[in-house]
Amino acid sequence: MALRKIRQYYDEILRKKAKEVNKVDERTKELIEDMLETMYNAEGVGLAAPQVGILKRVIVIDVGEGPIVLINPKIIDSKGECMMKEGCLSIPGITGEVIRPEIVTAEALDLNEEKVVIEGEGLLARALLHEIDHLDGVLFTDKALRVIDSDIKEGD
Ligand code: ZN
Questions:
Q1: Which of 32, 95, 136, 148 has fewest C-beta within 10 Å?
Q2: Ion ligand 1 — residues with CB under 5 Å?
């Protein structure tokens, strides 16, 4: 396992569309292990492969309930909407208020190329939507109603 460099917002790779994974081979598994290590090291709750410079449709998430690895994830259903503050490991020091669905269902492949369906609410829904956006070159700042520079101290 190895830490990978997290690409920053000005890196054009973050604006590209990632490609579907056809085969979960050793390289993909190594990528996933590195992504998990990189995410935990940076104390993030999610990371998408383009954030480490790889244009594959792979995301990892941990909202405090253990690691979730999703390959070729797609949102297949969503309900409600809510506003939450978001941040991104690729945009340090910035948070933004973003309106997104409150509950989402995503379909993906797991490490064994088996189909998995995951329903998320609250922070997990938010992480799924945020990370899947990364696979299409979308950053949360594109959707934020208000962007806050966290370096300017204001109450949370
Ligand atoms: Zn992000």
A1: 136
A2: 88
- Find the 85 Cα to ligand 1 centroid distance in Å: 12
**Ordered structural domains, the chain, with CATH:** 12-149 (3.90.45.10)
Exposure class string for 142-152: b at 16+ Cβ within 10 A, else e? ebbeeebeeee
Instruction: Give the tens place of pLDDT for each residue, 63-100.
Output: 999 999 999 999 999 999 999 999 999 999 999 999 99
Q: Which two tokens stand for residue 144?
A: 């934020």
* Residue whose C-alpha is closest to residue 22's, from 108, 99, 113, 103: 113
Q: DSSP state, 94?
A: E
pTM over cut 0.85: yes
Q: Which amino acid is at 94?
A: I
Catalytic annotation on 131?
Answer: yes
Q: What's the chain's Rg over C-alpha atoms?
A: 15
Q: CB 17: neighbour CB atoms within 10 A? A: 11
User: Considering 26, 107, 121, 131, which one is annotated as catalytic?
Assistant: 131
